[in-house]
TrEMBL record:
SUPFAM superfamilies: Thioredoxin-like
Annotated InterPro entries: Thioredoxin-like_sf, Thioredoxin_domain, TXNDC15
Protein's name in the database: TXD15 protein
Transmembrane annotation, as ranges: 166-184
Any one Pfam family match given in the protein's UniProt record, by short name: Thioredoxin
Ranges of residues in domain Thioredoxin: 8-138
Keyword DNA-binding: no
Signal sequence, renumbered to the chain: none
Keywords: Membrane, Transmembrane, Transmembrane helix
GO cellular component: cilium
Keyword Phosphoprotein: no
PROSITE patterns: THIOREDOXIN_2
GO biological process assignments: cilium assembly
Amino acid sequence: VLPEEQNGTDSARAPKVNCEERNTTGIERFTLQILNVSQDLMEFLNPNSSDCTLVLFYTPWCRFSASLAPHFNSLPRAFPTLRFLALDASQHSSLSTRFGTVAVPNILLFQGAKPMARFNHTDRTLETLKDFIFNQTGIEAKSDVAVTKEDWEGPLPSVLTKGIDWLLLFSVLFLASFVLYATLRTESIRWLIPGQEHEHQE
């Protein structure tokens, strides 16, 4: 079970996660990377390293994910020595189950390939995200970073996309089929029980 970030101020305490900051030499643009359906999160996390990665589980039709998007898009500029990834939880359901993602958006801080902390604030803004990262790692954000027009445009979408949740649809159809089957089986079994048929004829 992951420890959840408390709503109180922990800035006076020592960092909980000792992150190895990556070398930013030669990197000109600090952006969020979105994993597609064929990419595995574990390929992007090095189990033999102590570097830290903030991973967002989202869905494109979730309004909370959409409102968080511009703030999360701006984080790589605020923390250039950390890595930021995002993945569509509906396309990576096995990972969602593995890391206990029961609702989106869900933000996890990884050290290497191990989840260390979960962001647990209802107020999802750049400032609360910066506070969370600082409280966990002790790494200070760049003070001049703010949410810009470009952050609203991407890479993480801030506009809801309409789509069908095929997993939910399949689950509903499976449940309805099972209930129908169980009801029909119950009726047929009732006629096979000795004594039930005579009662029906009377």
